[in-house]
Design brief:
This protein is an all-alpha fold. Helices cover about 80% and strands about 0% of the residues. The chain is rod-shaped.
Length: about 130
Amino acid sequence: MRAPTPATEPRAQPLAGSVRAVRTTVGRLLTAGFVLAVIALLTVGGSSYLQIGSLVPDRAPVERTHQVLNHIDGLLSTFTDAETGQRGYVITGEDDYLAPYPQSLAAIADNLAALSDLTADNPRQQATFA
């Protein structure tokens, strides 16, 4: 007895309407998934745009705070320079050590004026410079 060959085997006939229904269902599911993905992408993009728009005005006080901190750091450095020059003079008695002292005093005055300008809108901070 011969083994059946693919040409002689009986084939199962698919139902034409069933295959068409599956293809239509898969197509609709793919379309729905694509549409949902686009809607989600647009929603996230719009939300991000609105959040970034609200962050921009909030950035100005933060930048001002950083400027104040930088001036305070510069003021501390200038005080340290003045103190170092004064200490060198007191220890050695040589006038060369006093050279940075007047420059430091001028820089301290400039830094205090800049800090006063930067904190003009904050009376609590102004009180610390008085």
